[in-house]
């Protein structure tokens, strides 16, 4: 049975190279990108990549019009995969949704069935969206850092860009696993919030006006970095011997002004975290997000907004006017 018309927040190409224009359109199912599984969207997350796309920055979206939203949670309407029954609660993130194909900022989304991950027991639709790509990235960082030998006994873990969505969930997850977490933030008024998530210490970013030394006083057993650029270079220079850093963002720049010295003299490890990982690993880590990686402070790190507030909330992310993780509720 055809679904009724529905609302979607869709980006349209701006005139003469101007930034894209976002507006709510009334669509039908066949207006969506191809796919054999239709999902009624419950919630969709707000991510830095979504904010860049709305602003037309970073060449995130190349083909318009496009429904944004790189992650979503919802219920299956129908699917070509018999294991995805109508009404089943699912989450989708990555695979190019919201960028190369239509994403979660709509009442309905259509995707290939092998992009759809049934929610594990213990995670509801709201929490799945709060976690979304951000929570998965935090879990993936912890997974690979522990794979490289990180343990709580080795020392403190630094989490940069601490008021961001990924970082807030990472503070929660790492502290629950027994790590002593130090949150780094340039927002002095966020200290109480970061401590409420589980941070033992809160520090300001270092002065990066001059060149970054290749080695400095060794302080951290691990670093979870969403900033990149000179700040990541500074963090690498302050890792303890055999320390490990996980990098997944470039809000502070894509260049990395460092040298091989931290790697060959201290044996530090730099892990690139790409959340668009294979489905078997996704299933395993979402199961861990429901069990031993489960955050316990999601309510502190998240807020739910209405669809009409979506454009303004995305713009605030680029102006450093947001804290934690926001999700938009569609149904």
UniProtKB/TrEMBL annotation:
Name listed for the protein in its UniProt record: Quinone oxidoreductase YhfP
Family matches, as SMART domains: PKS_ER
E.C. number(s) listed in UniProt: 1.6.5.-
Database matches in CDD domains: MDR_yhdh_yhfp
One GO molecular-function entry: oxidoreductase activity
UniProt domain Enoyl reductase (ER): residue ranges: 22-328
Organism of derivation: Achromobacter piechaudii
Keywords: Oxidoreductase
Matches recorded under Pfam families: ADH_N, ADH_zinc_N
Domain of life: Bacteria
Keyword check for Transmembrane: no
Keyword flag Ribonucleoprotein: no
InterPro entries with a match to the protein in the record: Acrylyl-CoA_reductase_AcuI (IPR014188), ADH-like_C (IPR013149), ADH-like_N (IPR013154), ER (IPR020843), GroES-like_sf (IPR011032), NAD(P)-bd_dom_sf (IPR036291), Zn-ADH-like_protein (IPR051397)
């Amino acid at each position: 049975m055809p679904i009724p018309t529905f609302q979607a927040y869709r980006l349209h190409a701006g005139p003469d190279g101007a930034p894209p224009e976002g507006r709510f359109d009334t669509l039908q199912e066949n207006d969506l990108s191809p796919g054999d599984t239709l999902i009624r969207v419950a919630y969709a997350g707000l991510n830095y990549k979504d904010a860049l796309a709305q602003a037309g920055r970073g060449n995130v979206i190349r083909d318009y019009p496009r429904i944004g939203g790189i992650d979503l949670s919802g219920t299956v309407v129908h699917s070509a995969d018999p294991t995805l029954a109508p009404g089943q609660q699912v989450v989708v993130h990555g695979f190019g949704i919201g960028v190369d194909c239509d994403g979660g900022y709509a009442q309905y989304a259509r995707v290939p069935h092998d992009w759809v991950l049934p929610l594990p027991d213990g995670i509801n639709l709201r929490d799945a969206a709060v976690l979304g790509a951000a929570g998965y990235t935090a879990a993936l960082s912890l997974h690979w850092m522990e794979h490289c030998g990180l343990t709580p006994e080795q020392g403190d873990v630094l989490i940069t860009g601490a008021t961001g969505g990924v970082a807030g969930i990472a503070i929660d997850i790492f502290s629950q696993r027994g790590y002593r977490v130090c949150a780094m933030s340039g927002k002095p008024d966020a200290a109480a919030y970061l401590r409420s998530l589980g941070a033992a210490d809160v520090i300001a970013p270092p002065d990066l006006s001059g060149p970054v030394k290749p080695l400095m006083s060794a302080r951290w057993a691990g670093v979870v970095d969403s900033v990149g650029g000179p700040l990541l270079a500074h963090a690498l220079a302050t890792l303890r011997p055999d320390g490990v850093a996980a990098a997944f963002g470039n809000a502070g720049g894509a260049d990395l002004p460092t040298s091989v010295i931290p790697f060959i003299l201290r044996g530090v490890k730099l892990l690139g975290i790409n959340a668009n990982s294979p489905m078997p690993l996704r299933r395993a880590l979402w199961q861990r997000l429901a069990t031993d990686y489960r955050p316990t402070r999601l309510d502190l790190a998240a807020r739910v907004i209405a669809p009409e507030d979506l454009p303004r909330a995305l713009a605030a992310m680029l102006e450093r006017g947001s804290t934690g993780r926001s999700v938009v509720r569609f149904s």
